[in-house]
């Protein structure tokens, strides 16, 4: 169990720049709220452009030394950071639950998941191999070496306030880059706790910097336009991602974008129904449906449609909703009232156009930003919920007759992040997996995220990959060396 000393150590109400805990130059601060209760849990600096520019400059200065360290030195510091995160996992999880609302058990899971990227890239740093290419002439050698991109910026969302930082920053730091992190307005405390542990791990000043702000536009503009920033990594909405891409174009930055999703969850008539229901519950209701890879549209064969819908409704109705800090809670609140309003608007639109509510369909009696787990049937493509990312605990179930129809429904969106399907027919598995326009596909699995596999999407769901052996390359430049006069 965490001690009061753990909480005092990790609870920070200041930015972290160049190894120092600082306030905004303007002196402005903003409040961090607990979405389950609405209470103020902290006040942090409300930074602007000048603060961010200063952080970028410090990161650039630190890059000159950090990029010259050996991979073994970087690996050892990252490994120590990993160990410290695991040692303080309970205290970090409690902080996370208080600021983003997810059940405590899920927060503990995220701490371990997020830490896994630090561990992985502490090891992967040693494997940034180059090449010796056979030359066309006897007096030449062709060498390829990899070197760090430079100063990187990371703009992260509130729904995974730890893992989205480590998934971006661990490979950057492993590669020899320095980073400036702008965490989501709603969840700065987890990021600041990570900074405290990075300092304890021996991370040199200026390598890992955290700038907090209530309005992301001003800070984001600096992080996407500043000439000293050579790489930007963003996780968030497609609209904001497109803006950042435009802003980064003038300085031709390297970019990684993990944007919106509209994940289909297809259940074929030969699916193992028990496993499909378990997968649906795990995929849909993680973080109260507030993840970019949550099942967004359930597409179910007509022969098993009624059984799947009824069983999913029964399981959904039985879920325990409440404050994430309470024992046994399976669903916490949505992040704020605006999120509730969006979910309710999508449900109301569907019902007005003929959808049937099997369970839920309304804000929860607990009030605040709690919403009932909801299952809708009799859906059609004219409903807004067929095209928009829900980001809430709502399961819209569509019906299909043929494999081709299921694939067409699944692909009928500009997004292509994650998809799921259940079938026991091996030929169908290969055919459908090939036909789906998604960067990640769960086949008879509802949870697919791991540090070992490449995370990323196709189409308007983004570009680049995070995690896995591919994640390190996102922060490395490939340099060709032609050595002549050797004969």
TrEMBL record:
Residues 21-480 form the Aldehyde dehydrogenase domain. Pfam families: Aldedh. Keywords: Oxidoreductase. The active site is at residue 258. It comes from the Bacteria. SUPFAM superfamilies: ALDH-like. Signal peptide: none annotated. Its EC number is 1.2.1.-. GO terms for molecular function: oxidoreductase activity. Belongs to the aldehyde dehydrogenase family. This is NAD-dependent succinate-semialdehyde dehydrogenase.
């Amino acid at each position: 169990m965490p001690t009061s000393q753990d909480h005092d150590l990790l609870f920070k109400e200041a930015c972290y720049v160049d190894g120092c805990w600082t306030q905004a130059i303007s002196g402005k601060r903003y409040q961090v709220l607990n979405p389950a209760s609405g209470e103020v849990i902290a006040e942090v600096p409300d930074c602007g452009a000048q603060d961010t520019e200063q952080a970028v400059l410090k990161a650039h200065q630190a890059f000159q030394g950090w990029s010259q360290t050996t991979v073994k030195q970087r690996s050892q510091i990252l490994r120590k950071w990993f160990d410290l995160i695991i040692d303080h996992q309970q205290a970090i999880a409690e902080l996370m639950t208080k600021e983003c609302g997810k059940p405590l058990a899920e927060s503990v899971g995220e701490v371990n998941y997020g830490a896994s990227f630090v561990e992985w890239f502490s090891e992967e740093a040693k494997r940034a191999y180059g090449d010796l290419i056979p030359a066309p002439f006897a007096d030449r050698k062709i060498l390829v070496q990899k070197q760090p991109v430079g100063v990187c910026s990371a703009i992260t969302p509130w729904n995974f306030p730890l893992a989205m930082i480590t998934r971006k920053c661990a490979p950057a730091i492993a590669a020899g880059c320095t980073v400036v992190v702008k965490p989501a307005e709603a969840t700065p405390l987890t990021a600041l706790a990570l900074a405290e542990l990075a300092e304890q791990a021996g991370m040199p000043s200026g390598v890992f910097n955290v700038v907090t702000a209530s309005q992301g536009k001003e800070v984001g503009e600096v992080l996407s336009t500043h000439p000293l920033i050579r790489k930007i990594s963003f996780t968030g909405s497609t609209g904001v991602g497109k803006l950042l891409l435009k802003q980064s174009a003038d300085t031709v930055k390297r970019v990684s974008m993990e944007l919106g999703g509209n994940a289909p969850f297809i259940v074929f008539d030969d699916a193992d129904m028990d496993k499909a229901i378990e997968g649906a519950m795990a995929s849909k209701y993680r973080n109260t449906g507030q993840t970019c890879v949550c099942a967004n549209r359930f597409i179910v064969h007509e022969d098993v449609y009624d059984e799947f819908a009824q069983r999913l409704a029964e399981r959904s109705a039985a879920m325990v909703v409440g404050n994430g800090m309470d024992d046994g809670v399976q669903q916490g609140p949505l992040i704020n009232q605006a999120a509730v309003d969006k979910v309710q608007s999508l449900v109301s639109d569907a019902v007005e156009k003929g959808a049937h509510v099997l369970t839920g369909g309304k804000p929860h009696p607990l009030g605040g930003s709690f919403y009932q787990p909801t299952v809708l049937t009799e859906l059609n493509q004219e409903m807004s919920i067929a095209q928009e990312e829900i980001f809430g605990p709502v399961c819209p179930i569509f019906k299909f007759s043929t494999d081709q129809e299921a694939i067409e429904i699944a692909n009928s969106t500009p997004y292509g992040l994650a998809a799921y399907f259940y079938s026991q027919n091996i030929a169908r598995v290969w055919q459908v997996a090939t036909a789906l326009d998604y960067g990640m596909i769960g086949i008879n699995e509802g949870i697919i995220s791991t540090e070992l596999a490449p995370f990323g999407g196709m189409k308007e769901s983004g570009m680049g990959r995070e995690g896995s052996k591919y994640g390190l390359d996102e922060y490395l430049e490939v340099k060709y060396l032609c050595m002549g006069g050797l004969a």
